[in-house]
Amino acid sequence: MLIVADENIPLLDSFFGDIGRIHRVSGRSMTAEDVCEADILLVRSVTRVNQALLEGSRVKFVGTATIGTDHVDEDWLLSRGISFCAAPGCNANSVAEYVLSVLSLYAERRGLGDWSELTVGVVGVGNVGGELARKLDRLGFAVKLCDPPRAAAEEGDFVELEEALACDVVTLHTPLTSTGEHATHHLIDEARLSRLGRNQLLINTSRGGVIDESALLNRLAGPDAPTVALDVWRGEPAINPDLVNRVWLATPHIAGYSLEGKVQGSEMIYQSVCRYLGLPARKKAGQFLPEPALSKLAFTSSADEVGAAVTAMRCCYDPRRDDAELRRSMWQDEPHRRATFDRLRRDYPVRREFSSVKIQLKGSSRSSQDTFRALGFKLKI
Questions:
Q1: Which of 41, 126, 224, 335 is most buried, taking the most CB atoms under 10 A from its CB?
Q2: Nearest to 9 by CA among 371, 326, 236, 265
């Protein structure tokens, strides 16, 4: 059995080596010739899986190690009897930690001693938005949830988009859809951008097309513009250098790139392949996670509660490092910018989630303990 896989999917040999022969290819440049003899195809979000790629191939199973599926023509796969699976929620915690790290920087920028003074509108309350909302709620933030499809289908404490857009922070976690009653393409358009002001932060970790980038560029050039942090971009990897230079934080689509998130994606598609083939799924992601480079931090009773939490978060992840890497590439010509964007993702350094670090607290308050637990750290008291 031949398994063709994006070379950036981690632990391919560990999970799939005893199922079939693995042929690694670049996900961005994958062609019909690469997959024509494959029985199983494993991809990430950079590969368009459609008739053009698979017509005439032997592929009977496609798995994407991602939460999003807008790069896959699911209707065409179904019409050809090709099984499909994704990895919903695999990197939800990673993205939530990215947003929390950005929030901590923004609170610092605003001079807030207590970051939970910020109100947060979460637009899209699926696996990622839901996980973020739970963390924010435990941390004491006032959170407003906006998810029109869910609001139409179920009871819940959801608000209209305009109400969410009035929060201090607006963070986007929707899929990218172009049709239907709740299409999200250019959801944040010129009119909605005009309602965002200088004391607001807009974060996008969903898909670039959810924001009208042309309208965003114009808004950022105007008076009282909001602060903007973008991890996703229209036309990746050929992103707009003018927009990179205008936004406050710019990262190369890596919000979900914690090691735990990526490995969990591999595990989820491994489980689906095993079900498809009728094989027992004996392997777990935890078997393959290495010892973290940073495993313990200690704070004494004199540590400030918020300051200690921020220090711990920044030790695990500081988005300014990714921002600096991406900005340096904007001085290159367009072909080199494209190549650098993909390289930054392909060669992304190991980033561990907060749960990989044990926090030792001496004489700490119950409030401080609750903060670290809400963030996901392990505690030793």
A1: 41
A2: 265
Q: Among 131, 236, 260, 353, which one carries the catalytic annotation? A: 236
Q: What is the DSSP letter of 307?
A: H
Is 366 noted as a catalytic residue in this protein? no
Considering 234, 253, 345, 351, which one is annotated as catalytic? 253
Q: pLDDT tens, 16-38?
A: 999 999 999 999 999 999 999 99
Phi, psi (deg, nearest 5) at residue 169: -125, 130
Decide if 96 contacts 126 (C-beta within 8 A): no
Alpha carbons 19 and 179: distance in angstroms, whole number: 38
Closest CA to 204 of 239, 162, 233, 243: 233
Q: Are residues 213 and 337 in the same domain?
A: no
Q: Round to whole Å and give the CA distance between 306 and 319.
A: 18
Q: For the segment 294-351, what is each residue's pLDDT rounded down to a tens digit?
A: 999 999 988 988 899 999 999 999 999 999 999 999 999 999 999 999 999 999 999 9
**Do 305 and 369 meet the contact criterion of CB atoms below 8 Å apart?**
no
Q: Is 236 a catalytic residue?
A: yes
CATH number for 130: 3.40.50.720
3-state secondary structure of 371: helix
Respond yes or no: is residue 346 known to be catalytic: no
The answer to whether residues 216 and 233 belong to one domain is: yes
Number of domains comprising the chain: 3
**Do 59 and 19 share a domain, yes or no?**
yes
Give the C-alpha distances (Å, rounded to integers) separating 297 from 149, 319, 359, 380.
Answer: 42, 20, 5, 10
The whole-angstrom separation of Cα 186 and Cα 181 is 14
Buried b (16+ CB within 10 A) or exposed e, 164-194: bbbbbbbbbbbbbbeeeeeebbbbbeeebbe
Which domain, by its residues, includes 29?
Answer: 2-86+258-287
**349, amino acid identity:** P
Same-domain check for residues 229 and 100: yes
Cα–Cα distance for residue pair 353/264, rounded to 1 Å: 12
**CA gap 20, 93 in Å, rounded:** 31
- In this predicted structure, the answer to whether residue 364 has a pLDDT above a threshold of 80 is no
pTM above threshold 0.85? yes
Q: Are residues 137 and 276 located together in one domain of the fold? A: no
